[in-house]
Every structure is written in C-alpha cells, then in structure tokens.
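Usage example:
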Amino acid sequence: VRGGVPEAILGDGKTPAEVAALAATAVETTGRVIATRVTGAQVAAIRRRLAADHPGTTIRWRERSNVVVGHAPDFEPPRLEADVGIVTAGTSDAVPAGEAAAIVGEMGARVGRIDDVGVAGIARLLDRLDDIRAHDVIIVAAGREGALPTVVAGLVDVPVIGLPVSTGYGQGGDGEAAALGMLQSCTALTTVNVDAGFTAGAQAGLIARQLDAARGKRP
Amino acid sequence: VRGGVPEAILGDGKTPAEVAALAATAVETTGRVIATRVTGAQVAAIRRRLAADHPGTTIRWRERSNVVVGHAPDFEPPRLEADVGIVTAGTSDAVPAGEAAAIVGEMGARVGRIDDVGVAGIARLLDRLDDIRAHDVIIVAAGREGALPTVVAGLVDVPVIGLPVSTGYGQGGDGEAAALGMLQSCTALTTVNVDAGFTAGAQAGLIARQLDAARGKRP
Amino acid sequence: VRGGVPEAILGDGKTPAEVAALAATAVETTGRVIATRVTGAQVAAIRRRLAADHPGTTIRWRERSNVVVGHAPDFEPPRLEADVGIVTAGTSDAVPAGEAAAIVGEMGARVGRIDDVGVAGIARLLDRLDDIRAHDVIIVAAGREGALPTVVAGLVDVPVIGLPVSTGYGQGGDGEAAALGMLQSCTALTTVNVDAGFTAGAQAGLIARQLDAARGKRP
Amino acid sequence: VRGGVPEAILGDGKTPAEVAALAATAVETTGRVIATRVTGAQVAAIRRRLAADHPGTTIRWRERSNVVVGHAPDFEPPRLEADVGIVTAGTSDAVPAGEAAAIVGEMGARVGRIDDVGVAGIARLLDRLDDIRAHDVIIVAAGREGALPTVVAGLVDVPVIGLPVSTGYGQGGDGEAAALGMLQSCTALTTVNVDAGFTAGAQAGLIARQLDAARGKRP
Amino acid sequence: VRGGVPEAILGDGKTPAEVAALAATAVETTGRVIATRVTGAQVAAIRRRLAADHPGTTIRWRERSNVVVGHAPDFEPPRLEADVGIVTAGTSDAVPAGEAAAIVGEMGARVGRIDDVGVAGIARLLDRLDDIRAHDVIIVAAGREGALPTVVAGLVDVPVIGLPVSTGYGQGGDGEAAALGMLQSCTALTTVNVDAGFTAGAQAGLIARQLDAARGKRP
Amino acid sequence: VRGGVPEAILGDGKTPAEVAALAATAVETTGRVIATRVTGAQVAAIRRRLAADHPGTTIRWRERSNVVVGHAPDFEPPRLEADVGIVTAGTSDAVPAGEAAAIVGEMGARVGRIDDVGVAGIARLLDRLDDIRAHDVIIVAAGREGALPTVVAGLVDVPVIGLPVSTGYGQGGDGEAAALGMLQSCTALTTVNVDAGFTAGAQAGLIARQLDAARGKRP
Amino acid sequence: VRGGVPEAILGDGKTPAEVAALAATAVETTGRVIATRVTGAQVAAIRRRLAADHPGTTIRWRERSNVVVGHAPDFEPPRLEADVGIVTAGTSDAVPAGEAAAIVGEMGARVGRIDDVGVAGIARLLDRLDDIRAHDVIIVAAGREGALPTVVAGLVDVPVIGLPVSTGYGQGGDGEAAALGMLQSCTALTTVNVDAGFTAGAQAGLIARQLDAARGKRP
Amino acid sequence: VRGGVPEAILGDGKTPAEVAALAATAVETTGRVIATRVTGAQVAAIRRRLAADHPGTTIRWRERSNVVVGHAPDFEPPRLEADVGIVTAGTSDAVPAGEAAAIVGEMGARVGRIDDVGVAGIARLLDRLDDIRAHDVIIVAAGREGALPTVVAGLVDVPVIGLPVSTGYGQGGDGEAAALGMLQSCTALTTVNVDAGFTAGAQAGLIARQLDAARGKRP
Ligand SMILES: Nc1ncnc2c1ncn2[C@@H]1O[C@H](COP(=O)(O)O)[C@@H](O)[C@H]1O
Ligand SMILES: Nc1ncnc2c1ncn2[C@@H]1O[C@H](COP(=O)(O)O)[C@@H](O)[C@H]1O
Ligand SMILES: Nc1ncnc2c1ncn2[C@@H]1O[C@H](COP(=O)(O)O)[C@@H](O)[C@H]1O
Ligand SMILES: Nc1ncnc2c1ncn2[C@@H]1O[C@H](COP(=O)(O)O)[C@@H](O)[C@H]1O
Ligand SMILES: [Mg+2]
Ligand SMILES: [Mg+2]
Ligand SMILES: [Mg+2]
Ligand SMILES: [Mg+2]
Ligand SMILES: [Mg+2]
Ligand SMILES: [Mg+2]
Ligand SMILES: [Mg+2]
Ligand SMILES: [Mg+2]
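Running the assembly step on the lines above writes:
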C-alpha cells in the first residue's frame, strides 16, 4: 500500500526458510524487507537467500532489538519532515524501543533517543525535558510499573504513545503491570501491547507522515 | 496548561457537591468546565452552582454520553484546521464515542461520525469508506470482539485509535475481549482503556493540534 | 464407535513407547491410526512399531501440523458427499488448520483451503469470497485478535466454526484474545479451544456426515 | 439476508425506546422481530410501538427466557425438515436453553427438549438416550462444572454444541468453569459463550438449514 | 495486646447490631473502639448502644473515610514522638487515606497530609517536597496507574508504604493496576492491599512506635 | 507425628544434595523416606547417600509417578483395615494417580485402581461400577474438563476426592478447567490442587485410618 | 438415594414459586426438605406451600446461614455415631459454617463448634485445641488469607476439610486468596469452593456415615 | 544518594557484558557493587571486569541467593544500631530470604535468621518466639499458602514485612496464593512482590536506618 505502514515480517513461530522466502518476496515487490522478533538463524537464512536472489541488497541487523532491515540497491528510503522522540526508563527497555526506532526510521521520520530516565529518579527526567520536548510525537517505553509515559505525558503538549516492556517478575510481571498502568493513565496517553515496538513505531510514523504532508503544503 | 489537553472532571466516585465545586473552579480559572461520566444529580448540582457563581455560563449536557460542558460568556473556543473521524460498530458504542466526540470538539477539531458499520456486515463498512477516509485521524469504537479498528486500520493511511467498549457478556465480556483484540491487532493501531472516550478524544485532539500548527505555518 | 468421530491419540505428555503402543492397538482394532500433536520421536516410534507389528501400513506424517496418520493395507477410507472449507488468516495458522484438515479428510469429506486472507487486508478476503462460499461448512483459523471468523460468518450462509490460534504476545497473547473474541462474536459462530484443530475438524466432519446421509437418501 | 440467521435485537444496554424503534424497523423490513435479553419495560415499549405502527402483529413473550418475538400478519415462518434437540442439566439452564429454542424455532427447525438430566445422576440421562438420539443436531446447556455436553457428545453420533450457563459461585462461578470445561472437552464439541443461547440456536439452525436443503433435493 | 496495633472492627458484612455489640465490648475492655468501613446504619447502632452502656463516650465519625472512633471518658490516647506523612494523588484517594490517618492518629503519631500531588502534574509534587520530607515514614495513596508511591520513594530517604486505591475502570480498574504497579516498583516500597488504609496506617504506626521508643531512650 | 500423615520431601526446587540430606534424616528418624516430584538426579543422589549412611534400606522408585520410597531394614509398614479406590480418566492421569497410590500405600491402606474410564465414553465407567463401589473412599483423577469425579460421586455413597490433572491446552489448560470444574461440582466432592496426588492420597489415608480405628474397636 | 447425601434445593436464581414447588415435592417423596442460599421471600413461599400441602411439617429457618429445613411429622432423622467439628476464624465465617452445620446435622452426625480462633491470634486457637481434637473429622472455615485450615491440619490427626469464605476485598478478595491458599496448603487438606458449606458438610457427613457403619459393626 | 537504599543491578535480562560494565561503574562511583538475580555467567564477567579495572575489590557470591556483592579495598561498610529478623517457612524460601539478608547486611543492620518454622507445624514456630521477638523489624518469607507472616505478625509488636516466595504448583502456584494471602492478611503486614527479597530487605534497612538515627541522637 503506497504511503502507509511498510509491511514487516514477524519472525515469531516461523522457520528460517519461511522467513527467508517472505524476505525475498518483500525485496522483490517493494525493494525493502523489514523483519522483527527475528532469531540469529532467521537472519542467517535471510542473508543467504538475499545474497543469492537479490545480490547487492544491504542488510542491517539490529541484534539488540531483533530487527533486520534490507534495502535493494535502488531502494529510495522516504524522508519525512517530522521528529519522533523515543524515551526509555532503563536499559531493559532497549529491545522494544529499538524495534520502534527501526520502524520509525524506515518510515522516514527523524528519531531522537532519551534513555535511562525512569521515574524512580525523577531528576534525571527533568534534566532531559528540553530534549524530550523537541519532538512532534513521543514514544515512551517502560517496564515494571510502567509509570514513565504518564509522567512524560504530563510534561509535554504533543501526542505520547506508551510502550509497555516485558520486564518485572511476580504479580504483574512480564509487562502486565506496565500495560495496565498505561491503560489506566489519567493523561491523554494511547497504548500498544507489551513489547509491541513495531506498533508504537508505526503509529508514530503515521502521525509523522501526516505532519510531513501538512508541512509540505507550505509553499 | 495553555495548548494541551483541557482539564476534565471525572464524575466517578465524587459527590454532586464536590463535582460542582470543581466545576466552579474550572470556569473561574479557564472559562470552561468539562465533566465526564456524570450522573443526573451531578449535572443538577453543577447547574445550580454555576447559575449562582457564574451566571451566563452556557451549559450543554450530552445525556447519552454522560458529558457536561459549560462555557463562560466570554470563553472563546479553539478552532483547529483538522478533521477527526469517529467510527462506531453499533448503537451500544454511542456512550464512549460521544464522550470522545465531546473532547475532540472542545479541543477545536471538526468531528465526523460514521456509525453502525460493525464487522459482521462488512458491506456497510465498505459503503462508507470514502467518508471514513476524509479525516486526518480516526477513532474507532467497538465492543464485544472489537475487530472494527483492525479492519479500518487496514483500509486507511492515517493514524487510527482503538476505543474498546464495555459491551458483551460471559467470557471476555465488558470490553475485555475488545481491549485484548485491539492490543493484539496486527495493524498500527494504538489503544485506550475500555470506555475511555476521553483519552481517545484527547489523543486525537493532540494530533489535530499538531496538524493545525503544521498547516498554520503555511504563509 | 461406528460412524462417529475416529479415535485419535493425543501426543502431548505421552512417551514415544506409549504412543506407539496405542498406535498399534488402533491399527489392529480399526485399521487406522491418527495421532495429533506428535513429536518427531513419537513418529519414529510409531513407524518402528507398525513396521514390526503391522507391516504394509502406509504412514503419512504431516510434519507442519504435527499429525500422523496410518492406514492398514485393507483400510477403506470413508468418502462423504460434502465440502468443508478451511480458511486461515496467515501462515502462523497453518499448524492447527492442517490438524483440522487431516481430521476432516480422515472422516471422508472434501477439504478446500483458502489461505492468507486476514482482516488487516479485507480486499484479499473479498477476492476469495466465491471460493469460500463453495463449501457446506467452514472452519476459520485466526490468531492474535481472531476477527476473521466473525467477518467470514457475516459473509456466508453456512455454519462457521472459529478456530483460535496460539499466536500473539503480551496481553491476550497465545490465542487468548482470539478465543475471547470468537466467543464474543455477534454472529452465529461456534468456537473450539485454542489450537484445537482436531475438535474443529471433527465437528465439521460430523456435520459433513449428516449432510452426506441426507444427500444419500436421494434416490 | 435471505436464508441465513434472522436479525435479532440484543436488549442489553438499550433504552426501551431504542429497542421499540429497532423492533418497528425490523417488522417493517422483514415482517418479524426477535429481541433477546429483554426486560419487561422493553417488552412493554415494543408492544406499544408495534400496536401503533404495525397493528395486527402477534407478539409472543417467553418471559422465562427474556425473548420476545413478533410476527406481522402476513409473515410466513420458515419450516425446515430437521430436528434440533436441546438438553439441559437443571432448571437453572432454562433461560439460555429457552433463548436457543426460540431462535431455532424461528429458523424453522423442529425443537425437542430433554430437561433435567445433569451428570450428577447419570441414570436419568441414560433413560432419555433414545429421545436425545432422535435429533439431527443437539445443543446441551449446562452450568457449574458444565460436564453434560461432553457426556452427551460421547453418546451420540451427531454434532453437539455446548452452551455454558452462568450458574455457580466462587472460583469458576458465573459459567466460567462450564465454558472452560467445554473448551477442554475431549469430544468433538464446539462451544458458544456463557448464556449465548442465541448463538447456539443460530448455529444449530444453520446446520438444520443445510440438512433441509440436502433432504429437499430428494425428488 | 499492650503496645501493638489497636483492635479495629471491620464493618463489612456485619449487621448493625453485631457491630454495636463488638463496639460495646471494645470500649469495656480497652476504653476505645475503632470501626472501619462502616455504614451510616452501623454508626447509628454504635451510638445508641454506647449511649446506653457507656455514657460519656465521645464518638467521632469521619464520614468521608467510613471510620468511627469512640473514647471512654477516662481513655488516655497514646502520644508518640514520630511523624507520619500521608500523601495522596487526587480527591478519590481521600477515603483510604483518611482511614490510614485515623489509625495512625489513634496509635499516637502525628499525621501530616500532602494532597493532590498526582504524577500527571509532577510540578505540584516537587513544590511540596520539603513538606513530604519532614516525616519519619510516609504512606502514599494512589489509584488508577498508582505511580505516585514509586516517584515519592525515589525522592525521600525514609520508609514509604504504597496504598493502592480502588479507582479506575476497564482493564486494571478498581485498583488492580495500582496494586500491581506498586508491587512492581523498582524502589524500596512495601505495599498493602487495595483500599487497605487500616493496614498501611497500622504498619506506619508500628514504625512510629519503634522510633518513639528509640528516641525515648535518650536521657 | 505418630499416627498422622507421614512426612514427605517435595523434590521441586531442591538440589539433589539437599534432597539426599533430607532423605537421610528421614530414614534416621522415622525408618522411612518418601519423596515426591523427584527427578532422576535426585533419586540417584538419594540412592548414593542412603547406601552410604543407611545400608540395607530398600528403595523403590515409581518412575512414572516421580515418587521414591525407602524403608530401613527394620521399618514396619502400617496395615489398615480399609480400601481406597483410585479412578483415572485416561493414561495422562497416571502421574498424580500414582503419587496418590504411593502415599495411600505407605499409610497402610489397600489400594484398588480403576483406570481409563473417562466421561467421553460413559459405558466403560458403568462397566466398572461394582469395582469402584468396593472401596471405602475414592480418589478420582481427571484432567482437561475434569468431569469424572462429579459423575463418580453421583454413583457412589462414600467420600470422593477430586484430583485435577495438569492436562489440556489453551483456555483452561494445565488443569485449570479441571480444578474449577471440581470446585463447581454439584456433588459432595472435595478437591485438592492440580496434580496434588500427595494431598489426595494423604486425606484418603487419614479417612482410612479413622475407619481402621473404628473397625479395630470391634472386639 | 438411600444412605447418601440428602437432596438440597439451591435457592440461587430460582423464583419463590419454583423453590416452594421443589420443596413440596421433596417433602412428599422423602419426608424432608433442605434448601440453601435462600432469601426471605423464598422461605415465605415455602412456608405457605407446605402449610397448604403438607400441614404439620416443622420448618426451621437458620436465617444467619440462609438455610431452611422442613421435616414432615413422621420424618425420622438419622443418628450417626460420629462427631464433626466446625472451626471458624471469625464472625464473618458464620454463614457458610452454619450451612455446613445444618447439612452435617441433617445427615445425623453430632456437630461441635469452635469459633473465633483465627490465625492472627494463635493463642486462642491453642486454647481450644482439646475441643478441636475431640472430633472425628473437622471442617475449618476461613476467609481473607484462609490460613486457619492449614494450621489446624498441622495440629490434628484426623481429616480436615477447608471451607474458604467470601470475605476480604481488593486483590484476592471475595474468598479467592482463601481458596488458593487452601489448595496450596502443605498439609493433607482437601478443599471445597468458596462459601460451599453444603459441600463441606456433605463430605464430612459421608465420612461420618462410614465411621458410624464401621463402629456399628462392633458386636 | 547518600543515606538511602544502595543501588543494585538487577541481573534479569541483561547480558554478562552489560552487568559487568554496570558493576565497574558502581565500584568506581560508590566503592561497592550489589547485583541480584545473577547467573553464573554474569558473576564470572563481573569478576573478570573488576579484576582488570578495580583490582583488590573483594567479591562475595551468595550462590544460593543469586546475589553478588563487591567492595573496593577502601569501601567502608555502614554499621547500624538495629536488628532485622528474617524468618522462613521452609528450605525453598532460602533464595529470596538470602537476597533480603544480603541487602539488609549491606545497609549495615544486623541480621538474625529463624528458619524452617512453617505454619503446618506451629510448635516449631512457638519454640523460636523469643528469638523472633529479639528484632526491631522482621521479614517473613513464605511460599505456597504464605500464612506464616500473618501468624508471626499476630505474635510480635514490631513491623513485619511479608515476602511471598514462588513455590507451589497448580492453582495459585508460583507465589500467587502467597502474595494474595499476605495482601489479605488481617494483621498490620505490608507486602512486597513474589521473590522480591531486595525490596523487603531495602525497606527493612530503611526502618533500621531511622531507628539507628533515633538511637544515635542519644547523648
Ligand atoms: N514486532 C511486531 N509486533 C507486532 N506486529 C508486528 C510485528 N512485526 C510485524 N508485525 C505486523 O504483523 C504483520 C506480519 O504478520 P505475519 O503475516 O505473521 O508475518 C505485519 O504486516 C505487521 O503488520
Ligand atoms: N489435538 C487434539 N486436540 C484436542 N483433542 C484431541 C486431539 N487429539 C486427540 N484428541 C481427543 O483426545 C482423545 C485422546 O486423548 P488421550 O486418551 O489422552 O490420547 C481422543 O479420543 C480425541 O477425542
Ligand atoms: N507432591 C506434593 N504435593 C503437595 N505437597 C507435598 C508433596 N510432597 C510433599 N508435600 C508436602 O510438602 C511438605 C514438604 O515440603 P518441603 O519442606 O518443601 O519439602 C511435606 O511435609 C508434605 O506435607
Ligand atoms: N532483585 C531485585 N528485585 C527487585 N528490584 C531490584 C532487584 N535488584 C535490584 N532492584 C532494583 O531495580 C533497580 C535496577 O534496575 P536496572 O536498571 O534494570 O538494573 C535497582 O536500582 C533496584 O532499585
Ligand atoms: Mg517504569
Ligand atoms: Mg466489534
Ligand atoms: Mg485475526
Ligand atoms: Mg453440569
Ligand atoms: Mg496515580
Ligand atoms: Mg475428564
Ligand atoms: Mg484466615
Ligand atoms: Mg506458608
């Protein structure tokens, strides 16, 4: 679909061969492949297949985020006149935050990162407030009690998307408390599922596209 | 806070006197009051109090959505150059959809309604597709299995916000299946909590404000 | 039991030796063995045991669906005058859909497959509508938000059985949202448990048997 | 839609006026109205409205099942050559079983009732086995532990639909244990949601329609 | 028990007569009665009974917190050299916060209140930081996403007890998200059950007693 | 404690060395060791340790039930004048049923087994009814929908203990539906936790001890 | 059924007329009626109906336990040589404990009550230990954290049945924590559902019957 | 932060290299590192890194509790005039109890252990009562039904912190029943999450610091 969210292959529960075949089709039809939640074996299969079928494709594996992106030699990435901020509470939030960053980047928006500003030390967050406010839309990733998106949304005037992260153990662990807390937030926060960096990034990308179009109309 | 989401009083669990007092303060400080999830008794108390303290305040009670809005005589409502679509699956979705519409309207965006296009009769939805596509951002309210936001998000190129509605009975009833289904959607959907029309509307309003600003920059 | 659902061995939680013994008994008493949710080790044990005890048994392992079927040389498979359609949303639905297909086939009905018609791209579904409508009863497998059975049931006039699939992660993952969504469907859908391809297939097979009998009464 | 499941109005969460308006529209467009989960006030509103707008409409209120059905004077109810059995475990199952019976009847199939044969006294069930077996498709309603559908499905060769009932208290109460038990059944049972008599009846009606058509083809 | 937590009558699920009888016994044996979660009818019964049996007892009903306390004429309330702070996020937290305050007060500690400093407007919280820090132990009540105790615990060096409040609706409502969020907190927070103001207050009171004793040892 | 339930070591979450040390202590103080939910490595460690410290101890490992029992040379096992029946629905119930049998046996009662009489084929159960009725107390193990204990309790006049088994997948899997179904049973059934063969066996053993004592009082 | 658990009518979800009709049938066929979880209106209807149809029936309403029992003039209640102890943690446990006591009494065993010995004050429990130990089988009712049955089972050598009570609020409230705690007990405890006094009493009664028979065999 | 809870690295979900880097930073900035929930590989990486970067650091790995602590040569551990008791129900509670002990110790308080006093054998607990009472604040770890903290809190006059442990299987297993039971406790107990020894220890340490300060003020 021209203009919307790029197709992405979800690695979960697919064999390396299946993922590689889908990747080859994606490169053939769109000049690009994005695959999320991939394993090393799936990435290796993609590399082999694209080397054979689509030589010259540049492949970038963000190992920490389990995302792989491939661009055919002639692929022209989009460029949007819009800034997306990605804020994280701690290092454990890196995986889905990185997934979100990859999708936002592939959709063409500029990505700014503000890391390690969890609510248990609110001063670090306040120190970075100007950085945070310099964006058009903000994704906030947080695990455990997931309070950071609420605090950020109370400090900015732009749309904030909460991204719960599957950290924490015991009652409400694996991101459950974070997800429920974001759904209960008394701010104008929308939420995606636990670890759904793709979804958060894609929604931010869509907002960025709207802004880019609105700005582009300026003569 | 100038520019962001307007304050709103949540009626749940407050006495009529408390709601009325908060309403008077709101009118005094901002020229406006918005209260959601209000009962008839709360609305009556607001009316009495504002008639006494702030005569001339116009009060509008959207009874079907349990929202009441009051404007002081000199209040100047904002006007945004942006369109928000609100889509519902069936008549039971009217309450939170109306709540969302009220907030979007108070934030100054234009609101378009596309009702009764639930997924069990996909033809009705397809008939209204052009209407739906004529908006900058779309809120989709749906209860029971909550599939409508996913289907809509697959058909448009703009940001879609899912609004689960507390219909349905038995396993997954009261909006649980709808909320989980929206969180599991394979589209770029963000979600708010069950019946959280305010949140959906406020997020749509923030996106509208960004678009308005972007468009406004045109000379 | 003559006429009803064929016995099937559930591989889960049994040792290879136990499954093999049950398989040998099944072939001895009914001329056929069906085993579901089997591992490679269980299949190997079955093969060895049947080669020893029941030479000549043809064995077919649908590895992708974890189903193994064996027919003694003289086994006469049933043939029913009825068509069962199996519809899937995406490739992750292949495992339980294949399990259902195997059971339907063993019960003697004709099986038609309509794959990759998930609700996020409703056009692909509408393109295949005539194919879908060409069946007497339809099984629809879908994971994540599990909306496809509802959409299909709104488009056809025959019984539809929803088969939730254990895909998705986070809140409502592993098929929970899909199962709850199917139970909440506002159509005439019945449901089976998550990944219960056997059950969906067996119920479809029983309907096919009734239809076959009704048609067979025609002189 | 000609041939499929008749439209039905769900009373839950609608005002009497809304239900009455929908009923009038239904009689006007199809000659019939079916409303489920209705209150006395809703039924009164329907009666008044239809008396005014569609005089001569015969109205039948199954008070015990909260179902109301109205036929315009010229409405010709369908007649199917098929028998649906409805089995209940105890008197508390009467409400959803009656809802199912109403829908099956409106779809034109013959309805047979076998009541009070719960699994705690298996002898009563076995006494009625011939009655049960005299049907083409069987709905089995049961609350609390919900075991009856499994036992019945083990005794017959035709499709069985489990209908969990919202009885029971404490852990697994309100039909949860019954619904989960039916989903876990090791027979070829399909299930509907708790108290979803409409859904069970509609699916049984669809199977009956298929059988009627198959039988009708006989010269 | 001399020195520990005072006995309190839990009004839930008792008749007015039962509560009144228990109150009379408490005054007789300890000179004091504390009853929580009481209804108006229960308070009236207590008043009547104590007026008859223990004339002169002073009774104080904190209606907003559903707590009633009675002191016999000769009852000598304890006085502890310790300060307990009670912090609330919003007005809905008043009920359990007031319950906690009542217990702390009856145990003899000084109570300081810091209200309306919810995390969605972090500036208000920071404005009150010196007030908050002026206590030996702090109870923080918060509903919905329940993030306030975590933020406070990150800002002070004394023990903080989280008190989740049964506000919020939809997924994680009625205090569930708040309770899970506090259990997931990455600070040194301990937690009590939803609305368990008594428990939070009693634990704070026990810490205050320990501090009082330690301070008392000073010559 | 003389007379009551024998101590048993729960293998879960202990190292082989810890289990072996506990086993040695048990043999030393009581002449016997019983360990449940043991792994092969734990059993090996027990064997080595007892061979060294308590030569002559006879060790019996019921591998299928993960139970190991050791008797010192001079240990005199109890003998009770009472019969405990253990009924299973299918082969997957063997593990906890065997655990229960081991405990009952160690407490001295006679154990009778009635296997493979699941409710999906009620005839097999009725065939074994006399066998079942020949016991003083009956444990019934069943997984998935867990209906067998209810059916058995409706057919006998003696105490029945339901033992839910962790079979089944999807919604209500891993014994949840079975446990909830037994708790909801409309018979005089008591229940133990999922797979808690030890508990079921110990309670049956205690009843057997009471009966033995009552019978023993006969001159 | 001669000898087993007496039939009892469950009042929940039945109209007064239905309960009264079932009561009349019960008196007619067995000389006795037992109805549990009854409302005042149901009891009144029973009284009127039995006065008319079965004059002379003595009716006893245990209002605090919502149990009503009627004996026809010639009904001979059973008498068993066995003692059942019923232990409660607090006054809120009275309702299900009373229900259990009524059933045990109707089955003919002697009932001993040991009340108000909750685990938060273990001394009161130890004071009553001889009383508790003077029974053949013990039912222990406890709400909130439900620990009392475990403590009791650790102190006696006879069968203990845990009866969780629907007290408590917040997370694990309404008896959930109590039920789960009893299922997790490391003693030989069996459990019934929350508030299921009937089930606990009936199981205790069955054990009493077995003991009575064993004792009766003494010459 | 001077004075409060020491920073600790949570090993969960971090690579060995990441944990080692964080450890090096901690030693550099504070002279100490504490890491919890660590694996052997993480400990090895820490050792290697500190040996290289901070030679002379003494490292202590409490393998049974998965805690590693490192002190730089010049690190001066705090010493508090306060006693924290740590009580466990059984050997499975050792892991989180040890984690709590490590944190308390690092904060400078004296730690006393009272082990193996679970509620199923209340006599062992009463035997140790004087030992338990000799502390200023008490942490009680318990799994399965988690009743021990309630019983202890009923026997002492000082603050008690419940620490639920992830033992138990089936319904309410993995610490769920224990956590819910502690939240439902009718004593003045506060609770931390399942296995959250760090949190329990840190809160106890904060109370100890307050007491130390209060005692220190004595001239
Ligand atoms: N990490 C992700 N999380 C959620 N959705 C995803 C993710 N990656 C891809 N998707 C969506 O899932 C679809 C792919 O599903 P599949 O057909 O199973 O590969 C894509 O079109 C995306 O819309
Ligand atoms: N994949 C499956 N899912 C659900 N039920 C199954 C499946 N395969 C077999 N069954 C049913 O489970 C029964 C076998 O259970 P078992 O005795 O454990 O082998 C068969 O008779 C089937 O009715
Ligand atoms: N399989 C089992 N299931 C439930 N409880 C058990 C089991 N085996 C032993 N137990 C009980 O748990 C206690 C042992 O717990 P532990 O101290 O962890 O070894 C024993 O005293 C038994 O009462
Ligand atoms: N075992 C533990 N359980 C709970 N919280 C912990 C634990 N260990 C460390 N923490 C807290 O979690 C924070 C570390 O989180 P992280 O940034 O992911 O390393 C520390 O500052 C502690 O407050
Ligand atoms: Mg956070
Ligand atoms: Mg919908
Ligand atoms: Mg789907
Ligand atoms: Mg039933
Ligand atoms: Mg909050
Ligand atoms: Mg079963
Ligand atoms: Mg208790
Ligand atoms: Mg315990």
